[in-house]
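Hey, sorry for the delay on this. The queue was backed up all week. Below are the sequences that define the complex (chains, strands and the ligand SMILES where applicable).
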Amino acid sequence: MPKPPVTITLTGAGGQIGYAAMFRIAAGDMLGADQPVALRLLEIPQGMRGAEGAAMELADCAFPLLAGVEITDDPNVGFDGASVAMLIGSRPRTAGMERGDLLAANGAIFGPQGRAIGAHAADDVRVIVVGNPANTNALIAQQHAPDLPPERFTALTRLDHNRAVGLLAAEAGVAVADVGGVTIWGNHSATQYPDLSHATVSGRPALDAVDPAWARGAYVDRVAKRGAEIIEVRGGSSVASAANAAIEHVRDWALGTPDGAWTSAAVVSRGEYGVPAGLVSSFPVVSRGGDWEIVEGLSVDEFSRRRIDASVAELVAERDAVRELGLIE
Ligand SMILES: NC(=O)c1ccc[n+]([C@@H]2O[C@H](COP(=O)([O-])OP(=O)(O)OC[C@H]3O[C@@H](n4cnc5c(N)ncnc54)[C@H](O)[C@@H]3O)[C@@H](O)[C@H]2O)c1
Ligand SMILES: O=C(O)C[C@H](O)C(=O)O
């Protein structure tokens, strides 16, 4: 008997990351080769044609797992019965825009979307925010869905995690499969802290395999600013790698992380590692039984503490700014 389809809502489905993600989702890369999916493409009126064109191409792929595609510009329709909500569409920063303006513009998107998720999505919906500023957008959405458990809301730092793994493997001259124990802490921004304190390369401590000064200097900067580096070289922000990371985040959340391995995700803090409760911050996580669990008990030395605190301070400032704007309580 085939499984019933799972409803997956993608916002910003007429944009680039939505386009890069939806074909892989429909092909079974996210929820598995035996799991039919029904896609809901949520856009704003200006993005509807892009979403319609993408839906035509989905039909032309004749994916056996694709149980249906609906396109809408109404969040109440878009999130109805959704088990996975991938919030990709957001208001990008434009020239001359202040940080407060950006947060306000995104509050106007993620507040109503959070409310619609709370009212219409499945009780066990998994929400992943990709649209920047991702952590604080996730916080805004979560605060507008008070009847859902906070842990249903997350933000994407898997892209940073994958970048950190890839760059470490390249430096150490090993395959990515030989790297483990990397953590991204904090915000998806230039303050994030890619931490190699507990990382391993072919089973040895990473800090024995690469120059520790590089690991805590140029490496941290390179990972944290990789998004800007991509924009400079490509002439546009990361698309396929962001879509891939979002797919891996949902896949691991729903199906579990491999035994003995952790990854990174921005989840709602309950005060772990001194991160104020309620912030959506990146942590080392495993997924067990369909839920993210923060890996606890890792030692944090003085250098790591300072870096984590700096990124968390930025999250606190963003939270306080959206509070002042009346976007959250
Ligand atoms: N967290 C990460 O790792 C990461 C990585 C890369 C990009 N991003 C962010 O992802 C976002 C999307 O990037 P992109 O390249 O796909 O951008 P894009 O401009 O190509 O597409 C964005 C789409 O969102 C739509 N949109 C805007 N407001 C919406 C709303 N209220 N509801 C539904 N749709 C809406 C737009 O019409 C557009 O089609 C950006 O904010 C980008 O900064 C995050
Ligand atoms: O869109 C951006 O500003 C960059 C993006 O968040 C990235 O990390 O690639």
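Residues 132, 159, 227, 230, 237-238 surround (2S)-2-hydroxybutanedioic acid (ligand 2) (CB under 6 Å).

I'll add it to the shared folder too.

S.
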